[in-house]
Each structure stands twice: as structure tokens, then as C-alpha cells.
Amino acid sequence: MKFVSTRTARRGVSLSEAITQGLAPDGGLFIPEELPHVSGNVFDAHPELAGVAAALLRPFAEGDPLEPDLEEICREAFNFPAPLVPLAGAPGPVSVLELFHGPTCAFKDFGARFVAACLQRLRSNASRKLTILVATSGDTGGAVAAAFHGRPFADIVLLYPKGLVSPRQAQQLSCWGDNVTTFAVRGTFDDCQRIAKEAFRDAELARGFELSSANSINLGRLLPQAAYYAWASLQISRAEGRKPNFIVPSGNLGNAMACVLAREMGLPIGDIVLATNANLTITDYVNEGVWRPRPSVATLASAMDVGNPSNMERLRALMPDIERLRSHIFAAHVSDEEIRTTIREDWQRYGRAWCPHTATAAWVYRDLARTRADEHWVFVATAHPAKFNEIVEPLIGEPVPVPAPLQRLLSLPRQESELDATLDALKMELMLP
Ligand SMILES: *Cc1c(COP(=O)(O)O)cnc(C)c1O
Description:
Blueprint: E1 3-5, H1 15-21, E2 30-32, H2 49-61, H3 70-77, E3 84-86, E4 94-98, H4 108-123, E5 130-135, H5 139-148, E6 154-161, H6 167-174, E7 180-186, H7 189-201, H8 203-208, E8 210-212, H9 219-240, E9 245-249, H10 254-264, E10 272-276, H11 281-288, H12 312-318, H13 322-326, E11 329-333, H14 336-350, H15 356-372, E12 377-381, H16 389-396, H17 404-410, E13 417-420, H18 423-430
Parallel strand pairs: 4-12, 5-6, 5-8, 6-7, 7-13, 9-10, 9-12, 10-11
Antiparallel strand pairs: 1-2, 3-4
This protein binds pyridoxal-5'-phosphate (PLP).
């Protein structure tokens, strides 16, 4: 299987090359040359999550150096569960797909661990170390640091906007040391992203470092995410003989794009609903057919504060026909006030606490249940509420218990330096002897 850029038609690259390069040379995103179709019975032999992942991803790895190791890579990446938990007391059948049981308690752990497991095999004999530069608005940096910490083939450099992430996110970004260097940048997330982009074009850095990225446009983060949608939809269709619909909290559209891929590959998935916050680029596109990227606005669901969702380029390349897209993909936006109401009321109604991102999906479900309550809905819980305790606890009126992996990270000392928001400041730090 080869992968091509969303922009210019060129010779395709292999899965390994696509993961190592991150972005296509023309600035586009890698997409599969054609989408393989899988039939239900390829999953019968290994119905657990890691087995489903390996069976689903096998066609993409065909002929690639990673192919012989695919099962082992999936066992490493999917070494924690993605439980499908029924929501008792709801107006109809609804399940919560909990993606927050990994080391940093957000769904990004799956993709980050998959990329790390792939690069471990591709790079362990390389003569140079990779330097993976990550600009993060909160969750990506922690997941990448956790996945690569202690791996000798890579150094990780994290840039996050000082004071603009939640206190527990800041702790998860800065508690690593060793091969992880964390900078609290005196600027915004946009500054962090600009510095990272400039660094990739800098000739002096290119001589000293082999720079790479592990952000959500990397195909190695996207593909494995299709596995939990496959696994969840198979559970429900086997038990009930019908396809579930999914509601996915969305920002850069990486998570939802994986659900679209799983559906296009033939998995039993019905409608896909994209839940967004007050950033309206996605809803405008799906509902009105206009593509109107704009600066992001800050909301309670900060990991979804994206004004120019990068994976939209993949969605539009794979589904150029907007009418076909709108036959089964819908979008709805949710305000901060609606996020607060959902967290408060669902706690009272169901005894479940949502993180602010998950709450957008829970709100959208409420609305859909008014007319479509008898269908089976799955809404995706993207992070554990304890990561956003400063928002959630005042709304539910009690402390959110901290899961063990987060507890451990919170107990470690912080190791970070502050950085001016310029490329020169970063170069000074990196090029110190
Ligand atoms: C990153 C993130 C999202 C948004 O996911 P995309 O793939 O960017 O659409 C939603 N919720 C949480 C908790 C996240 O960390």
C-alpha cells in the first residue's frame, strides 16, 4: 500500500516513509492511495482491541518494513483498554467509549504510542538521533512525552504557551526530564506553532539535528485511532445486529477522521456526528458547504480550540462530494454555557463526570435523543475529567478522583525552562554544548 499527498499527485510513499516524514514534501497530508475494504470475519481470530487494530491496519502495512512487526506494535500501542460503557438511565441505548485510560488520560495516547512503537523499529539502528519538536496546546505534548520518554533513538522538545494550559496539563508537560526538554514559551499556542514551523525550515538547525514532528497530522497517529471505532462498532453490531452512530468531540478532526476511515473501510458504523465548541469552521463546512478557516477562539474545551482544522484537508480529499458527505456526517457546535450545563446536569442525572470536551458530545446526544432515541448512540470520551478538575469540580460540587497514572505524574518534580517566543531563543537553548 502506498500513500500520496492531498495536494500534488506524485509517486506514493510507504507507510514507514509517511510516518517518518510526517508532512508530505509539498506541504500536504498523506492519505492512502486507495482505501482497503475489510470484512467482518478478519476480526474473528483476535477480537480484543490490539487484535482488531492489527487486522484493520494490515492492508496499510502490506509490503512495508513494519509489516512483520505490526502485531507486536499494536500490542505495545494498545496496552490499555477503551471500554464501551452503557449510560444507564439515558432516554435510549447509549454507550460511552472511554478513551482516557492511557498514561496521560486522553485519547492521544493511542496515536502517540503507535508512532513511538513504529519509530523504535525504524530508527533504533540509525546513526543520528531524531529530535521531535512538538508545539502543544495541552494534551498532545504530554502524550508524546509519555510515549517517547526513555527511548534512546529520540530527543523530545516540547513548546507550550506558559499559563495557557490547565495546571495539571502543565504538570504533565514538564514532569519528564531525561530525553524530554520542556519549554514554557512566553507567548500563545500560535507562537509555539510558528517557532516549530520556522525551526523545520532553518538551515543551521538542519545541519545539527534531524528534526521530526509527531503532531496530529502524522498518519501514524491517525490510522491507529480507527481501531477503537472498529472494535466498538463490532461489539454493538454483533450484540444487536445494527450499526451504532458515533458522536466525536472535534478540533483538528484527527479523531473523527479515524471514525470516517473505519466507516469507509466497511465497519458497521451508521452516522457520524462532529461535536465542536464555539470554533465554527467545521460546522460551517458541514452544514453550509463553505470552507472558512479563521483565528481560533478560547473555550472551556481548549484542546478543540482550532480555527483551521488541519485534517479537513484529508476529509475533503477523501470525500470531495459534499452531498455524499452530508448523507451520514453531521456537525453541531456547543457553547461554553451548554458545556457547563451538561457537566452539572449529567452528574446529577447519571452520576458521571465529563471533561469539557466530552461534554460537547454529551450535549449533542441530548439533542439527538429528542428525535432519534431508539438508535444506538456512542459518544466518545476524549479525556478524563480529573485532567480539567479546575473546571469540572466547581460544577459537580465535589472532587474528581485522580486515576493512578495521573497521580504518579502529578507527584514528579517539574523540569522546564521558560523561553522567549522566538526561533533564536530556541536555537540558543538547543545548540548549547
Ligand atoms: C485533541 C483533543 C480533542 C480534539 O481532537 P481532534 O483529533 O483534534 O479533533 C478533543 N478532546 C481532547 C481531550 C483532546 O485532547
